[in-house]
Backbone:
């Protein structure tokens, strides 16, 4: 009760200040009068009495202050006073204020932007899923430790036997054709097991999600679908009768039973899906064999996610899963031998954009923090300079009775105000830049949804950076000026405020720190740019020029297997007749595309695999003419022909690395390879090329003909080599397809050079961003150095004037000043060089693609410690520093010595 | 005049003010005089400590300030002990007594 009362009284006092002050004044007057009267009664004269009474009391102002301070509201008052004072000061110095605010805003904007990206990708990966923190990714692990997706039969066994998981669901993203013949549109959706929405704990906005009855494993039994809010709006005009409506997907009828909430996008981080269909419908909708789809343990094509039982830790679940995986391996050695499984927190999952972005984002965050540190040192320098000028003012105030803490608090408030203004500006920058996150990812098929929202995390982060920046920038200046020695500063005649040796040392230290940080950033930027350039020059082993790629999704056409094959053959024949077309081929996967390609488990006659060796080898399914179109030389043997069809003996072409590793010495041609349940004969050896990343190591690879290995779930890409610009072939392609079947849609036509560029995307972006940050750091460090030099020169104008009057030449003055600047720079460069060495060791470890089965692409192609980069960056920085020292030095020498002598 | 005002600890001053007001309402000067008189000149309270104490005690609700006419028919602020203040005085006195007894025991041990 007392606290409440105190609070209330203080609050009242804030608003009734005037009245309270008057009352107190009156009370004190009464006190003095009473004291004086007593003295007069003792015999003093009126004047003497009053004077004595006044002396006894001391200063009324002091008493009043002491009374005021006894209430809590005085703190608020003084803070308010500080704010108003700082505001006035900052406003009276617009140049300084603008520079400081802009500098701070750059640093804070950069770090807040990167933070929002991290927040979107890592901290809030699945919008619309309320408890996404408890959802984990479920992945298989191959015998040599790489993470792969799961097969449906394995998933079923895990689902039925694992106790520590509350639920496990499997999904498969797919392109689907929605609508009637003429208005069909390609949408992206996920085939999901019936319990999908239950595991994610996602509720629909309208209608329902899948019922437990629909969780059963009966193929083709549940022709239902749940659509996204966005699809409902765009395609169905938000019609209220959507529930129960029949839609056509891949020319099959489904009933819409529910619409999800607006913010739900599916369960792959950053990707936007529009429809969810029970997995049991997949065989029917994509014209696949359901026995194979649901029964082949080698067909690892579903992504699995799970929710842990409440109270179960990830480690506990991991050990149960690993144990069960061992049992599965014993039961099905042909498929699952040596395979294990595990669950991982979503942000560590390997399939999805977050796997790609994790590494680069970490680097960016580090770089942004470095930038922020540089920014803080810069502003600290500026504040120090300003406070040195105000030394005299502070000393006076201290002499008049101000408390040191009050002065320090005022300086901190100044820093806080600057930081607050910068943080608002920085947050706006961050929101604007945040929307450009999708540009960090290569162009993908599935629409991205890396939406950046202004949410609580963002504001908290912005607030924290604001406070930390303010402290970092203004702490040192505040401490400095508060330690001012009263006597010295007041006595100094003719100087507006020299910096004592301590202050100069601090500024020097700040500049050294800035220079070293800038060097680290520059070196990192240099490393990335170099590695990017190196990757661009790598020989990929084939010739992508003048080739147009056109991709199809045969599963959306409604064709059966045989029809699809015929379509390919006919299309190829037709295209070869067109003018301007020099070669046509088609294949399943595209090299250096962004999708991992397929592999197959092989047995090779005459080769005994080592224990635990992974016999899953990457392959491509190609048409005849593929190798000549791509300019991949065949070292031995022959290409496929149209005679290698369903009736003739199965054949295979292997890569050089394959032959070297598996076929050893002796004739490779004629050897037998077992896969897909059949024996294939090697008829050719192709030169090694790059398949997944330009920076990958050479891996064994093989090719099989389309007509002999055609699986219904394969993709299809047509290659057209043109005599001119490949873009001209787009309409030719469209025409030809239309003539064969008007209902088949080409998904995407793009020149191959452009498509391949996507694989270099991460490096390109990393190089670009770090280059930008490096440049900014350089600029800021230069500004910092310049301001220090300019200031110290201004300090020494008096001294310079004396020197020149005594006969010193301008060159020796120049040398003096430049020496000072370069000494600082050198110290900073040394420090920065050491720091960069330490940092680069960590950077080299960051991989771009995550340990999927593809050869991991490292962010840095070559060695991170390249002396050329170090020396180049240091030289560049030194040159800039030289310039920054030279300019003020030159100005100093231009000053008329007489003016300098009189300079105060 | 002897300027040997022994500085009183904040809590003790509060207690003395409350005790002084227990007898009758008084204004600031009166309280200072009374404390000086009764302590026989040992404690000379200066206004710099007195008035903040008044503010504190008022805030806590133990005394109440009222503007009245003084002896010379001028306006003066008189402080009155409230019921809560009376209680507070009782507890403080009791506590003070305990502390004094304990200190004596230690000194005589």
Residues:
């Amino acid at each position: 009760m007392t606290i409440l009362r105190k609070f209330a009284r203080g609050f009242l006092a804030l608003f009734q200040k005037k009245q309270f002050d008057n009352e107190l004044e009156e009370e004190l007057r009464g006190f003095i009068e009473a004291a004086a009267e007593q003295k007069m009664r003792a015999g003093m004269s009126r004047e003497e009495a009053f004077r004595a009474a006044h002396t006894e009391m001391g200063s009324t102002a002091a008493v009043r202050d002491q009374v005021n301070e006894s209430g809590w509201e005085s703190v608020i008052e003084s803070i308010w006073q500080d704010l108003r004072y700082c505001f006035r000061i900052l406003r009276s110095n617009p140049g300084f204020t603008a520079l400081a605010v802009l500098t701070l805003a750059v640093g804070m904007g950069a770090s807040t932007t990167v933070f929002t990206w991290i927040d979107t990708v890592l901290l809030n990966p699945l919008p619309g899923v309320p408890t996404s923190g408890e959802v984990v990714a479920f992945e298989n692990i191959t015998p040599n430790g790489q993470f792969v997706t799961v097969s449906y039969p394995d998933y079923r066994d895990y689902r039925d036997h694992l106790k520590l998981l509350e639920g496990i669901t499997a999904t498969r993203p797919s392109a689907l054709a929605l609508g009637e013949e003429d208005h069909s549109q390609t949408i992206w959706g996920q085939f999901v097991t019936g319990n999908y929405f239950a595991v994610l704990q996602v509720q629909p906005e309208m209608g329902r999600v899948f019922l437990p009855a629909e969780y059963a494993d009966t193929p083709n039994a549940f022709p239902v679908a749940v659509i996204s809010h966005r699809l409902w709006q765009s395609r169905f005009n938000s019609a209220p009768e959507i529930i129960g409506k029949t839609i056509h997907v891949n020319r099959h009828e489904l009933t819409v039973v529910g619409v999800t909430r607006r913010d739900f996008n599916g369960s792959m981080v950053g990707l936007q899906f529009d429809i969810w269909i029970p997995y049991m419908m997949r065989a029917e909708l994509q014209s696949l064999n359901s026995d194979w789809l649901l029964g082949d343990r080698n067909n690892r094509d579903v992504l699995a996610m799970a929710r842990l039982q409440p109270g179960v830790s990830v480690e506990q679940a991991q050990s149960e899963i690993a144990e069960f995986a061992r049992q599965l391996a014993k039961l099905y050695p042909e498929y699952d031998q040596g395979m294990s499984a595990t669950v991982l927190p979503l942000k560590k999952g390997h399939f999805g954009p977050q796997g790609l972005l994790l590494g680069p984002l970490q680097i960016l965050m580090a770089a942004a923090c470095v930038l922020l540190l540089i920014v803080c040192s810069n502003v600290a320098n500026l504040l120090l300079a300003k406070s040195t000028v105000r030394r005299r003012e502070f000393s006076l105030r201290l002499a008049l009775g101000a408390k040191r803490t009050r002065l320090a608090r005022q300086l901190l408030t100044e820093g806080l105000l600057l930081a607050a203004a910068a943080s608002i500006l920085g947050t706006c920058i961050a929101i604007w830049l945040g929307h450009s996150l999708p540009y960090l990812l290569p162009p993908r098929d599935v629409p991205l949804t890396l939406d950046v929202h202004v949410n609580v995390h963002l504001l908290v982060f912005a607030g924290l950076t604001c406070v930390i920046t303010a402290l970092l920038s203004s702490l040192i200046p505040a401490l400095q000026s508060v330690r001012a020695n009263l006597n010295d500063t007041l006595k100094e005649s003719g100087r507006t405020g020299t910096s004592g040796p301590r202050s100069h040392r601090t500024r020097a230290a700040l500049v050294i720190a800035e220079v070293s940080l800038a060097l680290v950033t520059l070196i990192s930027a240099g490393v990335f740019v170099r590695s990017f350039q190196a990757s661009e020059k790598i020989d990929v082993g084939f010739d992508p020029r003048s080739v147009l790629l056109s991709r199809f999704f045969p599963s959306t056409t409604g064709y059966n297997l045989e029809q699809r094959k015929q379509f390919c053959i006919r299309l190829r024949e037709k295209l070869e007749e067109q003018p301007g077309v020099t070669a046509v081929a088609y294949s399943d996967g595209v090299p250096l595309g962004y999708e991992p390609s397929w592999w197959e488990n092989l047995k090779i006659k005459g080769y005994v695999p080592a224990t635990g060796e992974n016999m899953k080898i990457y392959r491509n399914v190609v048409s005849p003419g593929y190798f000549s179109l791509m300019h991949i030389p065949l070292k031995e043997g022959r290409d496929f022909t149209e005679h290698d069809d369903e009736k003739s003996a199965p054949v295979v072409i292997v890569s050089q690395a394959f032959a070297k590793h598996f076929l050893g010495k002796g004739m490779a041609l004629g050897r037998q390879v077992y896969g897909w349940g059949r024996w294939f004969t090697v008829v050719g050896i192709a030169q090694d090329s790059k398949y997944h990343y330009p920076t990958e190591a050479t891996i064994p690879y093989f090719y099989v003909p389309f007509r002999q290995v055609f699986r219904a779930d394969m993709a299809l890409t047509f290659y057209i080599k043109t005599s001119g610009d490949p873009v001209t072939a787009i309409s030719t392609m469209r025409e030809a397809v239309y003539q064969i079947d008007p209902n088949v849609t080409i998904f995407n036509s793009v020149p191959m050079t452009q498509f391949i560029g996507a694989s270099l995307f991460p490096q390109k972006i990393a190089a670009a961003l770090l280059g930008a940050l490096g440049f900014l750091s350089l600029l800021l460090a230069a500004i910092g150095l310049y301001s220090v030099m300019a200031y110290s020169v201004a300090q020494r104008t008096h001294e310079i004037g004396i020197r020149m009057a005594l006969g010193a030449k301008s060159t020796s003055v120049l040398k003096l000043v430049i020496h000072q600047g370069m000494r600082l720079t050198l110290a900073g460069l040394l420090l920065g060089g050491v720091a960069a060495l330490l940092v680069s060791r960590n950077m080299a470890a960051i991989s771009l693609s995550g340990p999927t089965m593809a050869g991991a692409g490292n962010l840095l192609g070559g060695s991170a410690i390249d002396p050329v980069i170090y020396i180049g960056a240091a030289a560049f920085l030194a040159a800039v520093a030289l310039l920054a020292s030279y300019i003020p030095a030159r100005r100093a020498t231009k000053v008329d010595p007489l003016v300098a002598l009189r300079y105060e | 005049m002897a300027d040997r005002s022994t500085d009183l600890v904040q809590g003790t001053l509060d207690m003395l003010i409350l005790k002084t007001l227990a007898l009758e309402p008084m204004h600031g000067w009166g309280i200072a005089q009374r404390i000086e008189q009764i302590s026989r000149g040992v404690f000379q309270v200066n206004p710099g400590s007195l008035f903040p104490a008044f503010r504190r005690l008022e805030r806590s609700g133990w005394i109440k300030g009222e503007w009245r006419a003084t002896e010379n028919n001028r306006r003066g602020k008189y402080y009155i002990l409230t019921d809560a203040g009376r209680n507070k005085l009782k507890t403080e006195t009791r506590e003070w007594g305990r502390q004094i007894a304990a200190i004596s025991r230690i000194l005589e041990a």
